[in-house]
Amino acid sequence: MDTTTFDGLTRNLGNTLNRRSALRGLVAGAAALVAGGAILQADDASARRRRKKSKKTKKNQNQNTGGAQTLPIGAFCESSAQCPSSYICEVPVNAGNSDRTCCGAQGAGCGAKNEDGDDTAPYCCVGHACVYAPGNGSWTCQAVPDEI
Question: What are the sequence ranges of the domains in the chain?
Fold first, then answer.
């Protein structure tokens, strides 16, 4: 930097900066700092509110469904945890080899036989048969023993 330019710059700063203008600059800087901090704090608070709301919504959904999404009987599934109690995610007696649905396991309710002797919905899983239980007057899935 040129020495004459530096000397001129320092002279201008020294002449124009009195106590009153220095105090104004300090007050303006403090006001800007407070305003900037308030804006940042408001953004942070609104972000926290949004996070809490999403957690609360998710918590309420889990309470309503018992923590897991339960599929209806006969719906396609990926695991037995998605099915109602007494039903498992397997191939039902009326489906192809890859059609896994929520079907009846041991003791689950099933549909009565029709006039042709075919099973009706809800279906038992492969390896189970829909049997009438005269004691309680209902149709239930019972395991079929493997043939030798």
Answer: 3-65, 80-143
